[in-house]
């Protein structure tokens, strides 16, 4: 049986899809059979970030409605044999995601995969609540910024009360904090909430801190999950985060300002 | 002036993350209290307003019902502000 992980945040634009792409690719690269599902019905984007947008034939809603089976709809990633993408429908509206239908698809996926990653849309409408309802674990993607932190806290409330685990009085969803778009420089200057600030407010286990990085845009421009960019800080931070999720204890990197030598102090850089 | 601006700017910047943290701490605590309050409170509040309105004129926005959970006891607090023009009928 697969573990179902929801990538959620409440607020839009904080990095859910980037994270879903990187995290699922990271799990797949470590040998786990992984499926990643786009729950953003009507505003499909995961396929673009994963670079498989031209191979979409059937989608999640087709499978729910029985118009296609899972094997027809799942797109195998060209870079990893272990990774499959289930794209969202671009035309249907979110009401197509019924709890019964989503549950059926997840159950079938769970038979054949080790991990199922659910990329949640922003907001707290049906797509978002469906993405989190069946979850075992939640990655709460948060920017060090007031509205994002507040929305994340709101999502924690929903995870705790409106999930299958909550309704069945099972063990609660494991919740992890992933802080993205972090700028050590701005934290140092006192312009940005620090990791500790956000952690204190949300009191969550910190799974990773992804630094603000040009590599993220470059990666999505070219449809390559940023975790495959081994040279970049963001790519390495995502690799660490996957390791931590799998139980490795790794120190957090990219939290402090790089120490500047005399040379770079004088000449910049 | 340039130098002064520099110091002023850097001092202000120091503040903004701290301000953000303080605002969030208050807001999140408030949100959570709201979230954790029992679901019967809004209905209780409605019914209390209905009963009290039979006897005195009150501004319904000035009625608050809250439940505070303590370690040893929970306190159900009912707070009604009578407006100036509320003259109890004798």
Outline of the structure:
The complex is a heterodimer of chains A (269) and B (90). Helix content of chain A is 41%, strand content 16%.
Structure description:
Chain A contains 13 helices and 8 strands. Chain A is an alpha/beta fold and 269 residues long. In chain A, strands 3-4-2-5-1-6-7-8 form an 8-stranded mixed sheet, with helices on both faces. In chain A, a hairpin with a 6-residue loop joins β3 (75-76) and β4 (83-86). Chain A is globular, with a radius of gyration of 18 Å. The N and C termini of chain A lie far apart (49 Å). By secondary structure, chain B is of the alpha+beta class. Chain B has a two-stranded antiparallel sheet. The mean pLDDT of chain B is 78. The interface between A and B is medium-sized, with 18 and 17 residues.
Give the key terms.
heterodimer; A: 269 residues; 13 helices; 8 strands; 16% strand; globular; B: 90 residues; alpha+beta; two-stranded antiparallel sheet; 2 strands; 56% helix; extended
Report the principal-axis shape of chain B. extended
Strand order of the largest sheet of chain A: 3-4-2-5-1-6-7-8
How would you classify the helix and strand content of chain A by structural class? alpha/beta
Q: Give the overall pLDDT of chain A as a whole number.
A: 94
Helix content of chain A: 40-55%
Number of strands of chain B: 2
Largest sheet of chain B: 2 strands, antiparallel
- Proportion of residues in β-strands of chain A: 15-25%
- Strands of the largest sheet of chain B, in order across it? 1-2
Segments of chain B where pLDDT lies below 50 for 5+ residues?
none
Distance between the termini of chain A: 49 Å
Biggest interface goes to:
A-B, 18 and 17 residues
Helix-and-strand structural type of chain B: alpha+beta
Helical stretch tally of chain A: 13
How are the elements arranged and paired?
The complex is a heterodimer of chains A (269) and B (90).
Chain A: E1 3-8, H1 16-29, E2 34-38, H2 46-50, H3 60-64, H4 70-73, E3 75-76, E4 83-86, H5 99-112, E5 115-119, H6 126-133, E6 137-142, H7 146-161, H8 164-167, E7 174-182, H9 184-188, H10 195-202, E8 205-211, H11 214-222, H12 233-245, H13 262-267
Parallel strand pairs in A: 1-5, 1-6, 2-4, 2-5, 6-7, 7-8
Antiparallel strand pairs in A: 3-4
Helix pairs in contact in A: 1-12
Chain B: H1 2-36, H2 41-55, E1 63-69, E2 74-80
Antiparallel strand pairs in B: 1-2
């Amino acid at each position: 049986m697969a573990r179902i992980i929801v990538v959620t945040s409440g607020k839009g634009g904080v990095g859910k899809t980037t994270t879903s792409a990187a995290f699922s690719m990271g799990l797949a690269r470590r040998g786990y059979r992984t499926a990643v599902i786009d729950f953003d019905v009507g505003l499909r984007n995961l396929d673009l970030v994963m670079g498989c947008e031209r191979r979409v034939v059937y989608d999640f809603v087709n499978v729910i409605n029985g118009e296609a089976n899972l094997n027809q709809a799942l797109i195998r990633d060209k870079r990893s044999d272990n990774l499959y993408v289930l794209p969202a429908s671009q035309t249907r509206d979110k009401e197509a995601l019924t709890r019964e239908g989503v549950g059926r698809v997840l159950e079938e996926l769970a038979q054949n995969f080790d991990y199922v990653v659910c990329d949640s849309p922003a907001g707290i409408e049906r797509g978002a609540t469906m993405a989190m309802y069946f979850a075992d674990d939640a990655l709460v993607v948060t920017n060090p910024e007031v509205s994002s932190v507040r929305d994340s806290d709101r999502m924690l409330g929903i995870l705790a009360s409106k999930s299958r685990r909550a309704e069945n009085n099972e063990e609660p969803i494991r919740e992890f904090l992933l802080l993205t778009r972090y700028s050590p420089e701005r934290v140092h200057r006192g312009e940005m909430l620090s990791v500790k600030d956000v952690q204190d407010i949300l009191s969550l286990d910190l799974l990773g801190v992804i630094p603000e990085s040009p590599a993220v845009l470059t990666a999505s421009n070219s449809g390559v999950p940023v975790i495959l960019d081994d040279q970049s800080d963001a790519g390495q931070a995502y690799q660490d985060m996957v390791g931590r999720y799998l139980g490795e204890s790794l120190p957090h990197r990219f939290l402090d300002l790089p120490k500047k030598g005399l040379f770079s102090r004088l000449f910049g850089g | 002036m340039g130098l002064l601006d520099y110091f002023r700017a850097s001092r202000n910047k120091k503040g903004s993350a701290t301000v953000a943290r303080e605002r969030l701490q208050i807001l999140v605590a408030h949100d959570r209290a709201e979230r954790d309050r029992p679901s019967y409170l809004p209905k209780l509040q409605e019914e209390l307003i209905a009963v009290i309105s039979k006897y005195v004129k009150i501004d319904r926005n000035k009625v608050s019902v809250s439940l505070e959970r303590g370690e040893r006891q929970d306190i159900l607090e009912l707070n009604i502000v009578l407006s100036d023009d509320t003259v109890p009928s004798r």
